[in-house]
Design goal:
It comes from Halobacillus aidingensis. A hairpin with a 3-residue loop joins β3 (36-42) and β4. The protein folds into 2 domains: 1-91, no CATH class; 103-359, 3-Layer(aba) Sandwich (Rossmann fold). It has helices at 2-17, 59-64, 67-73, 103-106, 148-163, 195-219, 224-229, 253-269, 288-292, 304-311, 347-354, 363-374; strands at 22-26, 29-33, 36-42, 46-52, 77-81, 85-91, 116-121, 127-131, 138-141, 167-173, 188-192, 238-244, 271-277, 295-298, 329-333, 337-341. It is built from 12 helices and 16 strands. The longest helix is centred in the middle third of the chain and has 25 residues, at 195-219. The structure holds adenosine-5'-triphosphate. The site of adenosine-5'-triphosphate (ATP) has 15 residues, from α5. Adenosine-5'-triphosphate is lined by residues 98, 142, 144-150, 278, 327-328, 342-344.
Length: 390
């Protein structure tokens, strides 16, 4: 009982320190009403506080002062609410350092979304998956070695295992590091390592978005999912364009303007983006693009300024507090903001999982492709079955 009193007082203190209160003046006196703790539960994994804002207190005030919870309770908390009643969960343990990508365990989590994107595991061990249809366009940023490539590998592998017949993937590998793994896998339309190929892809996507836009207009529907439900129409797949190290395209105005266009109008057309970068480059993310990347994964950042570029200014969350040894740890910003552990999918495990869906190509075909490319006959292809430049 005494311990409950102390723990409740910690939250009351947080309200006082942050001056989270509604102020009323009566004569020369000011009266403050603080949020009211309506429930308190101690569970095995977390302490839960349920509190209610006093009438008149703008919920934005609470969000502005969220840093106080961080100062009082540390990193291990989540805060969710509806503008009146909030639940603050303070976890007893930290998040597990590893979350192995076991397809048999992960697969079932993907079935509740139209276009599920695997995020990570929270401190309660709950696996988080969100729907790209409702939260389109993802930005993944973090320092070198923080876990971005492994995360993108896990996301793309899970998409291919779960829905390869319903999505076309176009992968831009500007660092030539990772995406070769996906070449020739069913569902993957192109793996591009050259800017010229990526430009062709983007130009094609621009036209494809126009075509899809006309289609929606003609059938008077608002979303590609609605169109696909109409009788007698040809099924239109989702399209996902993933670009690794998009900051390398900073000077390519033509390309970046199409990327921005996808971020603006792709949602209804079923055309989505996953962009990753080491340093969150304010120049690359300027204009509409950043606002349209509705989900952000912030792995370890060098400082709060960079973390704010990724997560948005004014957030109390700070990806520079993730330590160097916490590989795969990131701050997820979507409908909620919380710290998660990304799945660890080793390259050889991914290869094995994708093997059954990989077309076999022999050396002769590869050489023919390369030769064809050097003659630039490849320029005329409608769009890209091979597209690699090694
Ligand atoms: N989710 C994870 N869980 C545990 N360890 C991880 C996780 N993700 C990455 N690691 C470890 O961190 C190493 C670096 O990860 P990764 O290559 O994904 O970093 P990166 O951010 O893509 O770096 P770069 O920007 O230099 O490519 C991996 O080789 C792996 O050992």
């Amino acid at each position: 009982m005494f311990s409950e009193y102390i723990k409740k007082n910690r939250l009351k203190n947080a309200f006082r320190i942050g001056d989270i209160s509604y102020k009323r003046k009566k004569g020369s006196k000011t009266f403050k009403s603080y949020p009211y703790i309506v429930d308190y539960r101690e569970r095995k994994e977390a302490i839960e506080y349920v509190f209610k804002l006093p009438q008149g207190l703008n919920p934005e005030e609470l969000m502005k002062k969220e840093y106080v919870f961080r100062q009082v309770f540390g990193q291990k908390y989540t805060l969710e609410g509806d503008g009146l009643v909030y639940v603050l969960r303070v976890f007893v343990n930290d998040i597990d350092q590893t979350f192995d990508f076991e397809w048999k365990d992960i697969g079932p989590y993907l079935s509740n979304a139209s276009f599920p994107i695997l995020a990570g595991k929270d401190a309660l061990g709950k696996v988080h998956v969100y729907d790209m249809v409702t939260n389109p366009h993802l930005l993944i940023a973090g320092e070198t070695g923080s876990g971005k490539s492994v995360t993108v590998r896990a996301i793309i592998t899970s998409i291919l295992l779960h829905m390869r017949t319903r999505v076309d993937l176009y992968l831009g590998d500007m660092k030539r590091s990772e995406f070769h793994l996906f070449r020739n896998v069913e569902g993957v339309k192109a793996v591009m390592t050259k800017k010229s190929d990526l430009l062709k892809c983007l130009t094609w996507l621009k036209g494809e978005m126009e075509r899809r836009g006309d289609l929606l207009d003609a059938w008077e529907v608002e979303h590609i999912d609605e169109y696909n439900k109409l009788e007698g129409v040809t099924f239109e797949k989702y399209i996902l364009l993933a670009i690794d190290e998009v900051a390398l395209l900073k000077k390519e105005k033509d390309m970046m303007s199409i990327v921005e266009e996808i971020s603006c109008i792709g949602r209804a057309l079923g055309v989505y983006l996953i962009l990753s970068m080491q340093r969150p480059d304010a120049k690359v993310l300027e204009g509409q693009l950043k606002n349209n990347l509705t989900v952000r994964y912030a792995f370890r950042h060098s400082d709060k300024i960079n973390s704010d570029i990724t997560l948005g200014r004014g957030t109390p969350h700070d990806a520079s507090t993730i330590s160097n040894s916490e590989k795969g740890r990131f701050i997820f910003r979507g409908d909620t903001t919380q710290t998660l552990q990304a799945p660890l999918l080793e390259l050889k495990v991914a290869r094995k999982l994708l093997e059954p869906y990989k077309k076999t190509v022999n050396a002769k075909e590869v050489n023919e492709d390369l030769e064809r490319e050097s003659r630039e006959a490849f320029m005329e292809l409608p769009f890209l079955e091979c597209g690699d430049d090694e």
